[in-house]
Every structure is written in C-alpha cells, then in structure tokens.
C-alpha cells in the first residue's frame, strides 16, 4: 500500500524560534504555531485553535530564526514525525511534530524582513542537501537527550 505524509499549515508563531546547532554543525530551529479554524454551530460562530510544534533544519532553520518571531504569520509545508523517549524519571513520553520541508514568509517588510507578497524558500534553493527529508543520524543529535 502507498503512503503519503504531507502537512500544510498557515498560522502564527506562538513563541520565538529556538536555533541550535548539532555537534556536526547542522542548524536546527524549533518553534510553535497556532492555527485557527472558524466554523458555525447553529447561529453562533465558533473558533478553535490548534497548537503545533515544528522543526526546521539547515538553511531553513537559519532563515526562520532570523526573520520570524512570536506572532508573525508563516506558511509551511512538511511532514509529520512521531518521537518517543523515556524521561529521567522512567516515564514513557511522546510527541508529534511537523518537520518543515518548504516555507513561505508571510509578513510585510516591516514585519522582520519578509516581502509584501511573502518570501518563499523551497528545497530547490538549497546549496547542499539538507536533512529535512531525512531522519537525523545519531551524530546529528541535538545536545539534549530528549526532544523539546
């Protein structure tokens, strides 16, 4: 059976991006996004907010950390990744996050450097292969033993 793992989101960042570098020198940026859904329930308009954790690698990580901050809109395409680990207390923990594969800055020039129509960045613009389409190897682990 064929598989398909694709996520498309447009939302606002819930916190400033955190940029880290792996021991091998690869940039990793982690951030959160809020995505709103407005719908009608009878005569009332309802709003539902979903909070999503995201992770970007390589050049995309550097661009996001430089040009996007809390509250800014961002359009992302990516894939779901499920992480599981055991805490220091021995509890099993897990987290579902989105690995960013493509993104588009949505703010105006006054909003941290994006263009009026939004700047975009896709894998075709990379100068070297990025691990955004791969699972990091053991040598690429972030300097912490649990996901953030």
UniProtKB/TrEMBL annotation:
Recorded source organism is Pelagicoccus albus
Name-wise, this protein is Single-stranded DNA-binding protein
GO terms of molecular function: single-stranded DNA binding
Q: Which domain of life is it from?
A: Bacteria
Q: Does the keyword Glycoprotein apply?
A: no
Record PROSITE patterns: SSB (PS50935)
Chain segments carrying region Disordered: 104-148
Gene Ontology, cellular component aspect: nucleoid
Q: Which GO terms describe its biological process?
A: DNA replication
Compositional bias, Polar residues, is annotated for 118-137
HAMAP family reported for this sequence:
SSB (MF_00984)
What is the annotated signal peptide range for this record?
none
Keywords on this record?
Answer: DNA-binding
Which Gene3D superfamilies does this one have?
Nucleic acid-binding proteins
Q: Does the keyword DNA-binding apply?
A: yes
Q: How does it assemble?
A: Homotetramer.
């Amino acid at each position: 059976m064929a598989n398909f793992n694709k996520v498309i989101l447009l939302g606002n960042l819930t916190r400033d991006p955190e940029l880290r570098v792996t021991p091998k020198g690869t940039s990793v940026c982690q951030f959160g996004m809020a995505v709103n859904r407005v719908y009608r329930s009878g005569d009332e308009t309802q709003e539902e907010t979903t909070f999503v954790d995201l992770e970007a690698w390589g050049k995309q990580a550097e661009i996001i950390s430089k040009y996007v901050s809390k509250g800014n809109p961002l359009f992302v395409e990516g894939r779901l990744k499920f992480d599981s680990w055991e805490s220091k207390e021995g509890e099993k923990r897990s987290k579902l996050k989105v690995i960013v594969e493509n993104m588009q800055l949505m703010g105006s020039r006054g909003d941290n450097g994006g263009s009026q129509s939004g700047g975009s960045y896709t894998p075709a613009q990379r100068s070297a292969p990025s691990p955004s389409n791969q699972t990091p190897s053991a040598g690429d682990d972030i300097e912490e033993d649990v996901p953030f």
